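Bit of a strange request maybe. I'm writing a small parser for structure token strings and I need a real example to test against, not something I typed by hand. Could someone generate the tokens for this chain?
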Amino acid sequence: MTTFKTKKNNRLPEISTASLPDIVFMLLFFFMVATVMRKDVLLIENELPYANQVEKLDKKDLVMNIYAGTPSSRYKLGSEARIQLNDKFANISDIKSFVLEERKLRIEALRPFLITSLKVDKNTKMGLVGDIKQELRAVNALKIPACRTGRYYTTKVGEAMDNLN
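Reply from user aminoacidic:
Good idea to test on real output. This should exercise your parser:
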């Protein structure tokens, strides 16, 4: 009669890790493509008004944003409308240096095409907007060859009567 011999070293085969780098790079690529980087953190309330004659900007990398509105309730800075440049509150006198600094960051060939976009809350008084425009005129930031009026206000698409609600 034959006897069966059992192997005393019954080890499981090792798991192949050859495809692990491929999986890691696929996940990395997916998250790089799917993630949206926020440019600015809003410190103000910014409910944009509605407008019916809206144009979409082609090159958003040439846009510098100036935000205006009441400070967000989480900052407890009062109810007076404020200006935000990038990620900090600013005074009207800071707009000139902001525009000049933004121009320095761009290459010289693109500087004439730099667009100033005003993202103003619909409840902000026009006196603050007028002061912002005066400062922009002082540094020649509203003369843009690609635009007849030279002023860009960021709005939502809708009818002007929707602003009354």
